Amino acid sequence: MENKVDIKKINEKIEKESAFIDLLRSEMNKVIVGQKNMVDKLLIGLLAKGHILLEGVPGLAKTLAINTLSKAISGSFSRIQFTPDLLPADVVGTQLYNVKQSKFSVKKGPVFANFVLADEINRAPAKVQSALLEAMQEKQVTIGEETFKLEEPFLVMATQNPIDQEGTYPLPEAQVDRFMLKTVITYPDLDDEKLIMRANLENTSSKVKPVVTLKKIMTAQKVVREVYMDEKIESYILDIIFATRFPEKYNLSELKPLISFGASPRGSINLALAAKCYAFINRRGFVIPDDVRAVVFDVLQHRIGISYEAEAENMSSVDIITKIVNEIAVP
């Protein structure tokens, strides 16, 4: 009985604390049409203190989405266009010599912002990618001998062109694993595109107003971890993760030759946290299996290695996750 009372209390708290989500969504929807999935994933990344890797062809409002979010939260925004000649100092900053004062001063790079868009991250060489990924992981940057904390909240949204485009350096698996979510953006449907086209031609796109404070977001980042998760849901998450490592134990022997490596423990942590965030943005104080299923593809598709055999059979990591999710019993 006591447990029920607790859940009710948590639910009330979450409902109160997540009220700003509706404000934020409606503010973003003034500008972003037909990309609900991308907006939801941005909110999950923000609440979970995670980072997002977006993949999709150019022109699908990826830059617009994170820029709009930063305006609606009155946060600082910076954009780094990754190119083959970019240097780590162009991302994190550098020391400049001041002749008048005969000493070095620090010039901070664009990574010092609440929202950082790393555009076309797979166009830059490995040392630049790793400079950004280190900042993402450690939430701090060392320039010369000084270490600087990055601003909070801190969200990196990296975009990646589909790999078959020329002049790209694919991100190594270990680095891709640092991104909490990988979301593949598709084209808007016909009705949405009609609205986008009209708004642009008539020049009627709305101005975004700040509706939430940075402080409120930081409070929500703490509260989101209080969302209740039953032990049955924890087991469900672990079964999904373990099925990527040992499919034969889950009646999925046919997947064994298709997977070169399964999801790491980072996968289970992020799947649980993303499910809590999904419950939170839907104004609920407890996690249900549908929350897990709503985020499972974005959390796991970049964490499963597919073998040459899978490529030969034209099987993607998404196909593998679909088979796993369909096989494992829902609590």
Notes on the structure:
This protein is α/β, with parallel strands linked by helices and 331 residues long. The chain has 2 domains: 205 residues, Rossmann fold (3-Layer(aba) Sandwich); 101 residues, Magnesium chelatase subunit I, C-Terminal domain (Helicase, Ruva Protein, domain 3, Orthogonal Bundle), CATH 1.10.8.80. 47% of the residues lie in helices and 15% in strands. It is built from 14 helices and 11 strands. The chain has a 5-stranded parallel beta sheet. The protein has a two-stranded antiparallel ribbon with strand order 3-4. A hairpin with a 4-residue loop joins strand 3 and strand 4. Helix 3 crosses helix 11 and helix 12 packs antiparallel against helix 14. The model has no long low-confidence stretch (mean pLDDT 86).
